[in-house]
C-alpha cells in the first residue's frame, strides 16, 4: 500500500486500496511499485490539498501565509522525491511532471511574497 508521511491517500476502508484505484494501478505497474514513487505521489497529494485549502480560505480573507508556505514546501519535497525516482531510472520520461510541480511550488512562493509585500 502506498503510504505517505502524513498517512494514506487511498481509501483506508477497502480491503486492497490498489485494486480500487485503477488510475494509480497502471502507474504503479509502470514504476515497478516502488516506494520512492509512492512517497512522491502521497507528498504531492498533500501539497495539492494544502493548495486547495488555501484557495478556499482566501475567499474568507483569512491569513493563509502559513498554508501557502507549507504547500510550497510540500510541492518542493514531492517534486524532489519524484526527481529522485527519475534519477534512479524508474521513469526517465516523466521529467516534465517534475518541472510542473516545481512551477507550482514557485507560484505558491510568489503569491506568498506578493502577500508579504502588500502588507508592507
TrEMBL record:
Segments forming domain CWZF3/5/7 THD: 42-108
InterPro entries hit by this protein: THD_CWZF3/5/7
Highest taxon of source: Eukaryota
Name of this chain's protein: Uncharacterized protein LOC120111450
Amino acid at each position: 500500500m502506498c503510504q505517505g508521511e502524513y498517512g494514506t491517500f487511498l481509501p483506508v476502508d477497502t480491503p486492497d486500496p490498489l485494486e480500487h484505484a485503477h488510475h494509480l494501478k497502471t502507474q504503479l505497474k509502470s514504476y515497478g511499485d516502488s516506494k520512492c514513487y509512492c512517497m512522491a505521489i502521497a507528498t504531492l497529494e498533500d501539497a495539492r490539498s494544502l493548495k486547495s485549502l488555501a484557495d478556499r480560505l482566501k475567499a474568507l480573507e483569512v491569513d493563509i501565509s502559513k498554508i501557502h508556505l507549507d504547500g510550497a514546501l510540500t510541492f518542493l519535497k514531492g517534486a524532489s522525491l519524484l526527481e529522485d525516482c527519475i534519477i534512479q531510472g524508474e521513469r526517465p520520461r516523466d521529467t516534465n511532471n517534475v518541472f510542473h510541480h516545481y512551477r507550482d511550488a514557485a507560484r505558491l512562493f510568489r503569491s506568498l511574497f506578493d502577500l508579504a509585500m502588500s502588507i508592507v
